[in-house]
Amino acid sequence: MKLLVTGGAGFIGSNFVRHLLRSLPSDSISRLVNLDKLTYAGNPDNLRDLENDPRYVFVHGDIGDADTCTRLFQEHAFDAVVNFAAESHVDRSIDSPEPFFETNVVGTLRLVNTALKYWKGLEDTTKPGFRFLHVSTDEVYGSLSPQDPAFQETTPFAPNSPYSASKAASDHIIRAYHHTYGLPVITTNCSNNYGPYQFPEKLIPLMILNALEGKSLPIYGDGMNIRDWLYVDDHCSGIWTALNKGTPGETYNIGGKNEQPNIAIVDTICDLLDKKQPRQDGQSYQSQKIYVKDRPGHDRRYAINCSKIESELGWAPAETFATGIEKTVDWYLANREWCRSISEGKYRRERLGNA
What is the pTM for the complete model shown? Predict the structure, then answer.
């Protein structure tokens, strides 16, 4: 397979690239092109160990740049596209919504337009095998009460933040291009991811790094906002399964079956750090917890019903939350230099200096 991965220098994208090139048989991928704009969350260091892999090509560019995308399709003759490229942080979308709509809506539209033109020009023998997989989020479905059943693929969209609204719009675009033009698209909607290489504005890496640096551990509201937590490598295997086995035009929810309130996440991280790297003063990291004012429109609960991808495609998560969070904490403890580079913005200064 010759594959275009957009946003492959970010958290989930870089884990997906590594999953394909390191975990799958070497003949599964003949060429993987990673197109990434390298915004604040895109870090080339995430894939530094793959630079010498002859199958891997990095391209610094924007999915909204039709000329660049057209050139890449012509040069590499892709069999599939996996679109991770997105602005994805809710708090940032509240502070500054426009970049989210520019990337997530306009960028997706331009990318899928380019893919459509390319697909229409394929030979009849290769056209049926082409796939465009769009990676989305459970946040498009809105918020659940404690008693509500988990989100299904048929749950009506009810986005509550500029981020989720922009992702919902992009999901509609992808659906429309299948029903209008016949483009063989697949959409996946995932629950909250965690694991190695996650940018430390997200809950789990923020808590790990703040704890180790002696900073406060800020918890929104009462800490009882519930999320379904999905270990990133499980998400990657789910995407690969959907890409290879999924039916064009279908949506597949990918979840971790691990509903946890935020306060329980923080407590688990503190307990693991107490065991693995105790504070010098002998106190628990729990003492660093503080409660802060809740953010506007904070969804109370997300939960994913992933029975469709399990029953139809044979995928299931391999990690429990207990195993996944311990692997995650161990990774951050073993990769403090990567963490320092992120915290200090070193990778961004080096990138700008070489631009």
Answer: 0.93
Q: How far apart are CA 313 and CA 277, in angstroms?
A: 41
- Scanning the structure block, which residue is given the tokens 């999924």? 246
Active site residue 139: yes
Q: Is 294 a catalytic residue?
A: no
Domains belonging to the chain, first-starting first, are 2-193+231-255+302-318 (3.40.50.720)
What is the arrangement of strands in the sheet containing 259-261, beginning at the earlier edge strand? 192-194, 226-231, 259-261
Q: Given 36, 79, 139, 319, which residue is catalytic?
A: 139
Q: Would you call 302 a catalytic residue per the annotation?
A: no
DSSP labels, 297-323 = T---B--B--HHHHHHH-------HHH
Percentage of the chain modeled with pLDDT above 70: 96
Which member of 56, 118, 141, 163 is catalytic?
Answer: 163
pLDDT digits (tens, 9 = 90+) for 5-40: 999 999 999 999 999 999 888 888 999 999 999 987
Contact criterion met (CB below 8 Å) for 204 and 325: yes
Angstrom distance (rounded) from CA 99 to CA 40: 12
d(CA 196, CA 89): 17
> How many whole angstroms separate alpha carbon 140 and alpha carbon 163?
9
pLDDT at 252: 98
CA-to-CA distance for 16 and 165, rounded, in angstroms? 25
Catalytic residue among 138, 153, 171, 233, which?
Answer: 138
